Amino acid sequence: MTTTTSTTDLTFLDPVSQSFMERLWAQDPEAAQILADEAERQATTLELIASENHATPAVMHTMGTWMTDKYAEGYPAKRYYSGCVNYDRIEELAVERAKKLFGCEYANVQPHSGANANLAVYFAFLEPGDTFMSVVLSDGGHLTHGSPVALPGKWLKPVHYPLVYDESRKDYGYIDFDAVAALAKEHKPKIILCGYSAYPRIIDFAKFRAIADGVGAMMVADIAHIAGLVAGGAHPSPFPHAHIVTTTTHKTLRGPRGGLILTNDEELAKAINKGVFPGTQGGPLMHAISAKAVAFAEAAKPEFKEYARQVVANAKVLAGDLMKAGHHLVSRGTDNHLMLMDLRKFDADLTGKQAAIWLEAAGIICNKNTVAQEERSPFQTSGLRFGTPALTTRGMKEDQMRQVAGLIDRVLKAKGDETVIRQVRRDVRTLCGKFPLPQ
Q: Catalytic pick from 3, 8, 14, 71?
């Protein structure tokens, strides 16, 4: 791209993005510079946040079309506004593609996020004060799984089951199903929730369903993190075990930022639809729904199955090399796209916040994260979370994961040494230059 105002070389962008940026420079150079700086940041850093990915240009540009211009409250053929014929068509296309992709009978594509999807399910099936079960939040849960600072934790009664904490056991760091069963019998929850934001192992959906059936509970699987792995066949599907499945459409699914709710039960689907609209949302984001339709089609292609397989293969190599370097991972490895490092085993005084700051300065983007039996606040934490979806999208494979593990190890063992951080930053730029963002 040629411009006299930009201080950033954006020739790595796809042609549509370059054309857009040229126009934005002419109209609003201040905003254009911020966008250009972010494009450069993404291009020259290693994105290892497990919940982030790089959308394809087709998905990204579909978000920026005239489909953003319309109010479309309601559902196809039952809108509150006129002029929705093409919005009905795109939503119906997204629904059909979602159903086919995940092998289910009903799909609601309107949730604005995974949090909104969970909230809609709670609204549809629970009353204030009702009990539901989820994992101990510091063991890998999410704000919407019962945090006291979020609406479900304030209005409902969450009961939390733990991981196996005993490191002498082979299943250390896995879900403690004995505790799940005991807590379910004691508290008789209306919903048992499985699915996590920092759990590195395969989820045994059949065991959860058996426990739920034993106490008359509904089983809800939040697969926000693993949806792309499920779609690509790299993780078992929650169906037919789950009554309801919620998810985001970004993360491993590599679509636009948004949510999705799935089920095989017609009566549950009717309640879910009411829980989304008018229960917890107003007008759907039709530009996002349009991009969801595009992303679902991408995820149905054979090459996406290879992508999902490579995400897991990359994660296993990255985890293995980090452990070889002496770092402690919760559950001693991973089965999916992420791993959780417990820094207390490395340096009792080092917080996740400080470690993440060092790594970001070196161009390695991860996030501080709570770990099992956490003693620090969520703003400090004792752990780091790493994931491989974004690096895999850029085409990196096992050899690059070994290199990335070495870069992480160098930064952490240098403990803030600026010379080492500068050296690693140069190496990161070199590696990124060999694997450009998706075109």
A: 71
